[in-house]
């Protein structure tokens, strides 16, 4: 039985499986990138004040700040597309989808932040949590609504084609002229 509002047929399975495989691969890459120990001569204290790290980066120069902010936005940004693809719903509230995806990404980022507390050389930074979450929301807004519209149109077109093929294979349904009521 198919969920209401889901993509139908084999296209749904392909999108869900591809989204799920890419999601797992991306999360494995992020875990490898963020949770491997680093050999550093010293470790800075953790940043628990929002935007303090971004302000410090801006004091170092706009090029350094732009690179670090872009890295923070890009790290989990693919989740903005991969989470809805793995879920596979065409008819979903845009706001609800954005909230679900952003909340899931915030929880993933928080999990990474908490796991980093036990990794040598890694320093938890609340700004990375904020940037990762904003990056996911921006990626979701940039791709998912347009992709859903495109897939809905394609699905409707395929449905119309299937109905037309069914009608031509079986012949048209006979129609009867209306008969008035006798006096």
Automatic annotation (TrEMBL):
<feature type="transmembrane region" description="Helical">
    <location>
        <begin position="69"/>
        <end position="86"/>
    </location>
</feature>
<feature type="domain" description="VanZ-like">
    <location>
        <begin position="24"/>
        <end position="142"/>
    </location>
</feature>
<feature type="transmembrane region" description="Helical">
    <location>
        <begin position="98"/>
        <end position="117"/>
    </location>
</feature>
<feature type="transmembrane region" description="Helical">
    <location>
        <begin position="129"/>
        <end position="147"/>
    </location>
</feature>
<dbReference type="Pfam" id="PF04892">
    <property type="entry name" value="VanZ"/>
</dbReference>
<dbReference type="InterPro" id="IPR006976">
    <property type="entry name" value="VanZ-like"/>
</dbReference>
<protein>
    <submittedName>
        <fullName>VanZ family protein</fullName>
    </submittedName>
</protein>
<feature type="region of interest" description="Disordered">
    <location>
        <begin position="154"/>
        <end position="183"/>
    </location>
</feature>
<dbReference type="InterPro" id="IPR053150">
    <property type="entry name" value="Teicoplanin_resist-assoc"/>
</dbReference>
<keyword id="KW-0812">Transmembrane</keyword>
<keyword id="KW-0472">Membrane</keyword>
<keyword id="KW-1133">Transmembrane helix</keyword>
<feature type="transmembrane region" description="Helical">
    <location>
        <begin position="12"/>
        <end position="35"/>
    </location>
</feature>
<feature type="compositionally biased region" description="Basic and acidic residues">
    <location>
        <begin position="155"/>
        <end position="169"/>
    </location>
</feature>
């Amino acid at each position: 039985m198919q969920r209401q509002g889901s993509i139908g047929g084999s296209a749904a399975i392909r999108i869900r499986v591809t989204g799920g495989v890419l999601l797992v691969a991306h999360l494995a890459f992020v875990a490898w990138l963020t949770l491997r120990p680093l050999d550093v001569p010293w470790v800075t204290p953790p940043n628990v004040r929002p935007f303090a790290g971004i302000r410090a980066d801006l004091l170092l120069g706009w090029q350094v700040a732009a690179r670090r902010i872009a890295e923070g936005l890009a790290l989990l940004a693919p989740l903005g597309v991969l989470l809805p693809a793995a879920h596979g719903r065409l008819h979903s509230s845009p706001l609800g989808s954005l909230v679900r995806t952003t909340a899931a990404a915030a929880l993933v980022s928080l999990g990474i932040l908490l796991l980093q507390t036990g990794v040598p050389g890694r320093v938890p930074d609340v700004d990375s949590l904020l940037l990762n979450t904003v990056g996911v929301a921006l990626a979701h807004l940039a791709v998912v609504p347009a992709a859903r519209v495109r897939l809905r149109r394609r699905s409707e077109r395929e449905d119309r084609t299937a109905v037309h093929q069914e009608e031509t294979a079986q012949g048209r349904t006979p129609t009867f002229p209306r008969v008035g009521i006798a006096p």
